[in-house]
Structures are given as structure tokens and as C-alpha cells.
Amino acid sequence: MKIAMVGSGYVGLVSGACLADFGHDVVCIDKDESKIARLLDGVMPIFEPGLAELVGTNVRAGRLTFSTDLASAIDGAQAIFIAVGTPSRRGDGHADLSYVYAVAQELGEHIKTPVVVVTKSTVPVGTGDEVERIIRDSGTDVKFAVVSNPEFLREGAAIGDFKRPDRIVIGTEEEWAQGVMKEVYRPLFLNKAPILFTSRRSSELIKYAANAFLATKITFINEMADLCEKVGADVQDVSRGIGLDGRIGSKFLHAGPGYGGSCFPKDTLALLKTAEDYNSPVRLVEAVVKVNDSRKRAMGRKVIEALGGEARGKRVALLGLTFKPNTDDMRDAPSIAVVQTLLDAGAEVVAYDPEGMEAAAPMMPAVRMVESAYAAIEGADAIVLVTEWDAFRALDFGRVKGLAKGPVIVDLRNVYDPAEMRDAGFSYTSVGRP
Ligand code: UDX
């Protein structure tokens, strides 16, 4: 089957490469000529484990190509995915749909054979209706259907998530379009991955509801962690104790500095906007957004407290900057607020991240980026673990002790063992643990 993927960013590139790997003939399209030129040279625009290899294999097999020319690239495609960005609109948090609508307009002008247009971008309820209207109003008489097919990919694990999904959601009530989508995902169908057919609007809402629910789960355990600190309980035990209840589930109950990334912050805001537009407030999600925002700065204050309440003139080493490990993505990373709080309090900040420093540097020009964890630790009064990269799990703490100036460690991801840290002579603080 020939498939066109419009938008070769994170979602488009991962989805396109995986669909090519299933055996489809895929073209990834992007307006950004330098991005396409680099992809043609085998250079990935993002860091995602396994992606460069997957792209390389499928390009060599002739199943994956790249193009900047939408009109010719979509020729003969039976499914065209829209996978362009939907950033938060400045001012009101609504998803900015201008890129999605621009693609719909172009498709309306250029489709020549019957085609299923699949919205993969995260879009608010009702966007599919608008995409359909735009294509129809372009005057085309070609048969088409507009289908919603949200992605649930986690950065850093996106290829595995695409190939072994918990479920595939397909929003269309048109039978012929369902048939095309079954063909697209046939290899997964054979693997018995549950495929859920719903109305387009239900499918659009499923994506937001899933992300809002996960953001709520994280925020819930984060507030429990705060309470644990006050009452002398251990959030890891609370998490395990509730997570073993099958109705609750153990995942996404890891307390930390608050959620960040390209999805949760933006999608929760967009859901609030939709709820407001339809006069159906989602107060729980409103609270989640507020609590998570204030938590990020609170983590900076936690570091200052660990320094004895005074950060002026102290040097703080940050280990990890990205919003989570195995990505170079700095979008809405808690580190940004932690850094700002520390700088505001007069601290000097030194940081190391295995993949995120290039993206982080322009966002935090006052922070000195160094080439290793140990280089960051040298001369530091406090060491703060912000992102749980594997490389930080097995630090040589004898060496750390010798390099650091102060004995303070603030572990915002509960990676280290409190007893071991104390035995090693550190003044150790973590999240929600005695
Ligand atoms: C998320 C969703 O998981 C994915 O299905 C969706 O399509 C896109 O958004 P992603 O943003 O890549 O994926 O990261 P995820 O692993 O979900 O983590 C999001 C944030 O929550 C990170 O900042 C992470 O550190 C934080 N988190 C996650 C916690 O603080 N605790 C947890 O238990 C889990």
C-alpha cells in the first residue's frame, strides 16, 4: 500500500519509518527543505533510540522516501497521514491548527484518486469535521474520508510503542475507510493488537482524555509525595501499595519534579480550552495543570532548602536537563523552572545532560554546560538529579565525594537509596521519602 506522511517531525518520522518497516511504500513529506535534505543524507532531526537504524534499513530497501513536494509525493497514495505540529496557541492554550488546515487545503487541491486522510496530529474534538469541510470546499470531486487515528507514542520508546501498541484507535464510521485503515495496520492486527473503531469525535477525545488522565495520575502521586514528607511516610511504598490494585495499576505512579514534555502540558491546556468552549468544565484537570506548574518551581526551592535556605554564592550541579531520559527534548522540562528558581536565588548553576545540552543552552544562557556528570559535580555545593538517565544511576560515589565541595544531594527522581547515601556521608533529600 502506498502511504504519504505529511510532516516529518517526531510523530511523522517515527510512524512513517514503522509503517515502511511493516512493508508499506511510504513517503515522508516536509516543507522544511534542509530537514528533508538531511534525512536524505541519513541525519535524523531528533534523537530517538533506534530511529536512525530503522530509517536507514527502510530507505535502503526502497520502501521509505522523502520529499518536499506534496503534490507529486501524494500521487497514488491510498492513505495520507497528517502529522504536522499542533503547538499551544499563544495567549489561550488552544491547539494551533493552522498547519493542519493548511495541509487539508493543499490535499483538497491535489488529490486525484480515492484516499483516506488520517489525522495523526493531536487535534481537538471537531477538527476532523473542519478538515473534511476544507477538502470538500476546495472543489475536489475525488472520493475521500477523513479519519482520526491518534498516536500514543512515548518519546524514547516510540518505535516499540508503535510496533507493540496497547491499542489502536480509529475514528471513522465509514466502512471503506475502516477497510483501508485495517490494511495500514494489518501486521498489528495479526499480532492481535486491539483495534478500536469509534466515531471520529470519540477518537479525537480519547487522545486528550488519555493524556489528561495520565497527567492526573502523576500529579496525584506527586501530591501524595508531599504529604508523605509531612507525615513521615514513604511514597514508593504508597505507590506500590495502591498500584497493585488492578483497578489503579502501577504505572505512572512515580513521584518526581512534575510532568513535562511535548504532550502532557500542551494537551491538558488544550483540553481545558475545549471544555471551556463547550461550557463543560473539567475542574480536575484545571487543578492538575495548576499543581504541576507550581511544583516545578517548588523543586527549585527544595534545593535551596537542602542548601540550608541560602543559595547565594553556592554552586549547584544539575544532572539531567531533558524532561525525561532517552530524548533530547527540552519542551516544558522541569529543569527550566528549577534553574530559574536557583538563578533568582543567586546560585551558580552547572549542568550536564547526555543529549539535551544543545537544546537547553539557548534556553538557559546563564548555566554553564559541561561534558560529564563528574565535571558538573566538581566543586559543587549541591548535586541535583533532575532527569533519571541510566548513566547517573551508577555514579562512583567515592569519586563524587572527592570532587564535590558540599555533601548535599537532591534526588528529584528517587533513583538512589537513602540509607546508602547517608552511609556514604551525603546529606540526601529525595521526593516523598523519609
Ligand atoms: C506522553 C504519553 O505517554 C504518550 O502516550 C503520548 O502520546 C505523548 O505524551 P511522553 O511525553 O513522551 O509521552 O512521555 P511520558 O513517558 O509519558 O512522560 C511524560 C512526563 O511525565 C515526563 O516528564 C515524565 O518524567 C513524567 N512522569 C511519567 C512522571 O513524573 N512520573 C511517572 O510515573 C511517569
Q: Could you explain how this protein is built, in words?
A:
It is a single chain. The protein is an alpha/beta fold. It is built from 18 helices and 14 strands. The chain has two domains: 2-198, NAD(P)-binding Rossmann-like Domain (Rossmann fold, 3-Layer(aba) Sandwich); 295-429, NAD(P)-binding Rossmann-like Domain (Rossmann fold). 44% of the residues lie in helices and 14% in strands. The strands form three sheets. Strands 3-2-1-4-5-6 form a six-stranded parallel beta sheet, with helices on both faces. Helix 1 links the parallel strand 1 and strand 2. The longest helix is centred in the middle third of the chain and has 32 residues, at 200-231. It binds uridine-5'-diphosphate-xylopyranose. Uridine-5'-diphosphate-xylopyranose binds next to helix 10.
Query: What is the CATH domain class of the largest domain?
Result: Alpha Beta
Straight-line N-to-C gap: 57 Å
CATH architecture of the largest domain: 3-Layer(aba) Sandwich
Q: Rg from C-alpha positions?
A: 23 Å
Any idea what the CATH superfamily of the largest domain is called? NAD(P)-binding Rossmann-like Domain
Strand order of the largest sheet: 3-2-1-4-5-6
How many separate domains? 2
- Estimate what percentage of residues fall within beta strands: 5-15%
SS field, number of helical segments? 18
Please state the structural category: alpha/beta
Number of beta strands? 14
Question: Helix amount, in percent?
Answer: 40-55%
Uncertain ranges: none
CATH topology of the largest domain: Rossmann fold
The average pLDDT value, as a whole number, equals 96
Overall 3D shape:
elongated
Enumerate the distinct ligands: uridine-5'-diphosphate-xylopyranose
Largest sheet: 6 strands, parallel
